Amino acid sequence: MLPKQRQDQIVRALRADGAGGVKVLATKLGVSEATIRRDLEQLHAEGRLTRVYGGALAVDGGDEPFADVNAVHAEEKDRIARRAAELVHDGESVLLDIGTTALRVAQHLHGRSLTVVTSNLAVLEELQNDEQIELIVLGGFVRRSYRSLVGYLTEESLRQIHVDWLFLGTSGVRPDGRVMDSTMIEVPVKRAMIKAADQVVLLADRTKFPGHGVARVCEPGELSMVVTEPGADEATRTQLTEAGVQVVLA
């Protein structure tokens, strides 16, 4: 990978997570920690991130374009999404969070007799012509760059419904199992989604263990299940299991 490509991936990762440690970034990109440190110093000098002790913070440059995020760890996301879709039985109701992994879950639900509720505009586009699926779109303020609906209207809509399954995304899972998010405006919607579901399933690839985020979404005990992949931090997985969460590897 060329240095420019690697540095662009670092910036994308920070925008998605809000912050990143040297060790985590090195693991994500498959390079040495020394290489990451040099990249962070250069990107800091260019004003593309803020260098802090042990890592870096994203600068306030707006949301990461949805298509760019969708291309990161695509195979891993698809395996997780396929496994998540297998949990659902015909006749049940599914609530899909914002984000690219939720979109992939929708792709694996085609042709099934289900009710799907979402604030994810990409999911709307994916399922709108599937006549087997009863599709419900939550109201709200449109975040165009991330193709989602947020705000009071979204939260109020969620207070009026109840579903069998919620598939939830995250910026990261702390070592103690807390679910975090780096986009503050999304957090109230995620919390309302959790209250609206019988089964709360977190979808998180291994790079989210441990992850980053400035706002707490929920405690581990509020989750029913986590669908992740081999390589997710074992200590964090143990914390989740001890909290009564079923951890499924895709």
TrEMBL record:
Coiled-coil spans in chain: none
Highest taxon, organism lineage: Bacteria
UniProt xrefs under Gene3D superfamilies: 3.40.50.1360, Winged helix-like DNA-binding domain superfamily/Winged helix DNA-binding domain
Pfam families: DeoRC, HTH_DeoR
Domain HTH deoR-type span(s) in chain numbering: 3-58
UniProt GO molecular function: DNA binding; DNA-binding transcription factor activity
Keyword field: DNA-binding, Repressor, Transcription, Transcription regulation
InterPro entries per UniProt: Carb_Metab_HTH_regulators, DeoR-like_C, DeoR_HTH, NagB/RpiA_transferase-like, Tscrpt_reg_HTH_DeoR_CS, WH-like_DNA-bd_sf, WH_DNA-bd_sf
Biological role stated in the UniProt entry: Repressor of the lactose catabolism operon. Galactose-6-phosphate is the inducer.
Protein name: Lactose phosphotransferase system repressor
